[in-house]
């Protein structure tokens, strides 16, 4: 999970102040937990330094407002299209997908296809390793690889369901 990309996602849609960004990020995370407000402001400082976000004045309650820059939009879109390796944790991809959905990312299909491609590559490599483990009599390795393959199969099924719902 990346606070940086959660903030960029929220600012993609509209200017916002720090507390609202915290609430938006928690909404994107769903049941994953709460965000420390200090994390939001520290990340905003880095995003401003890196020219991905700018401070654009204050709202009617004197809260500092932030907006995403063109460079920030490019950075977010680039991140959304970068496939997540399985060893990272599928939660990273689910978070990324939630961010894409939130902003109605017009390249969601490409994002899903790239994720399927990286999963299929992992499936092919692991299938070779699984066969080698079986031939070498390494049952523990065989079972661990089998478990990973089942997780990858579940991820592919989930992506297929997302794609099927998108077509409806």
TrEMBL record:
**Entries under InterPro entries matching the protein:** Tscrpt_reg_PadR_N (IPR005149), WH-like_DNA-bd_sf (IPR036388), WH_DNA-bd_sf (IPR036390)
Determine the domain of life of the protein's source.
Answer: Bacteria
Signal peptide range: none
Q: Where is the Transcription regulator PadR N-terminal domain?
A: 7-77
Please provide an example of a Pfam family that matches this protein in its UniProt record: PadR
Q: Mind telling me which SUPFAM superfamilies this protein's record contains?
A: Winged helix' DNA-binding domain
The UniProt entry, under PANTHER family, shows:
NEGATIVE TRANSCRIPTION REGULATOR PADR, TRANSCRIPTIONAL REGULATOR YQJI
Name assigned to this protein: Lineage-specific thermal regulator protein
Q: Could you tell me which species this protein originates from?
A: Oceanobacillus picturae
């Amino acid at each position: 999970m990346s606070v940086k990309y959660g903030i960029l996602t929220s600012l993609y849609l509209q200017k916002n102040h720090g507390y609202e960004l915290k609430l938006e990020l928690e909404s994107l995370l769903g049941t994953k937990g709460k965000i420390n407000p200090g994390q939001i402001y520290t990340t905003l400082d880095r995003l401003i330094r890196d020219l991905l976000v700018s401070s654009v004045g204050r709202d009617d309650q004197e809260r500092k407002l932030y907006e995403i820059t063109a460079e920030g939009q490019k950075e977010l879109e680039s991140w959304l299209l970068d496939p997540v390796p399985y060893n990272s944790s599928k939660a990273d991809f689910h978070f990324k997908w939630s961010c894409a959905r939130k902003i109605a990312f017009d390249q969601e299909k490409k994002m899903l296809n790239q994720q399927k491609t990286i999963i299929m590559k992992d499936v092919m490599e692991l299938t070779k390793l699984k066969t080698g483990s079986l031939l070498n009599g390494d049952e523990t390795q065989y079972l661990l690889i089998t478990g990973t393959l089942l997780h990858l199969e579940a991820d592919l099924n989930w992506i297929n369901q997302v794609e099927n719902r998108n077509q409806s």
